Amino acid sequence: MIAAMSYRRHFGAVLTLGLPLAGSQIAQVSLSLVDAAMLGWYDTTALAGEIIGSSLFFVLFIAGSGFSAALAPLVAAAEGRGDTTQARRVTRMGLWLAMLAALVSLPVLLNAEPIFLALGQKPEIAAAAGDYLSILAWGLFPAHAAMALKSYLAALERSRMVLIATLVSVVVNAAGNYALIFGHWGAPELGIRGAAWSSLIMHFATLAFLVAYVRHALPGQEVFVRLWRPDWEAFGAVFRLGWPISLTLICEVGLFAFSSVMMGWIGEIPLVAHGIAMQITSVTFMVHLGLSQAATVRAGRAHGRGTMTDIRRGAVTAIILSGIVSLLTIAVFLAWPEVLIGLFIDPASPVRAEVLAFGTILLAASALYQLTDAYQVIALGILRGLQDTQRPMLVAAVSYWIVGVPVAYILTFKLGVGGVGIWFGMACGLAMAAVWLMYRLWRQVMPRIQREISLQYGIKAGTAPTEV
């Protein structure tokens, strides 16, 4: 019999795993944050091009990262059962699927300019975004491979190394931006193309770092041994769990990316302010994403061991921690919006006052959906840990695209609310997703898992905390 962990131990376990993952997510988003800040000081048209260009890159990256994300629950469950061989098998095939996803997305990124023109973007912004993506597109391959290895390491609860790898990438990217955007240290002044080259170098450096670590620190895992050999059973397992995750991520990230497109229809200043506000809110969201990833691993391991009480307690712990972060975030956004927005605009810029005014309104509006955004991603993380991904995909599609996008469009362009209407629409979609996913977790999936564990181990449903 395995005794269930106390709530105190769950808080410690989630924080030990989740804080480095949250830190790595913040460091990850700071890559585009640094790009935005430096390009904002360089040229606002270049910044606008980077905003929509990086949005497309991120959407396509996320579209293929579901296969990498699927590794966390699969590896965690295998490790919970003590099956290291299965953990290795699914990781290898996760790398295969990651490379296939990058290959499928590449043509879209290499032909980005006409896509943006067709979406109604200004020619100069579309051209800047096209230049940016013509270089950065090749970074999809190392970015996807690195994502798969990070997911694998997180499932092994080696989240500190995930954080270190991401911090390495931040340093490489910041130094490259400083040199190549502005032409410092004898490098050519490349502007937005310099930001793209810096990011490309960073993705390859991050992958090299992670491969070296896995090879030398985990030689017994043999992840890269016979990597060329297909394993169709493991391939199928990763694919079945991963494709719904990819579509779920596309629905959510696509909502935010399309919000940038809609804001671009209004004008360059609203788009710049929107991009800055999105960068700031994405930093706080990464904390919730890190906690969600920790919840995925903890739920996966508890599921692999068959400990229902630990599944429930781990879920409650993640929800409480995410709620605390949300309340702190709301307070900061309402208290210091101008200070946060002002970090991204040159004090001498002629458009500084306009960007500050519009961005302050958007950042205050974002306080509306902090709790709901947090709870929808936490619920998704726990459900993935329990290997429930297809129904959450449908929830995301309906919430974000049947509710969120239409509400944003109607408020902004039909009722004349203005750019803030786009943010109100996003808040509606996220609220619906949060309520629906929490209902599925507690009223549908938890009872099903309880029944499965009871049948497997011959335990009555609803037994006390000491379980198999």
Automatic annotation (TrEMBL):
This is Multidrug-efflux transporter. Pfam families: MatE. It is a multi-pass membrane protein. It is found in: Cell inner membrane. InterPro entries: MATE_fam, MATE_MdtK, MdtK-like. GO terms for cellular component: plasma membrane. Its main location: membrane. One of its GO terms (biological process) is monoatomic ion transport. CDD domains: MATE_NorM_like (cd13131). GO terms for molecular function: antiporter activity; xenobiotic transmembrane transporter activity.
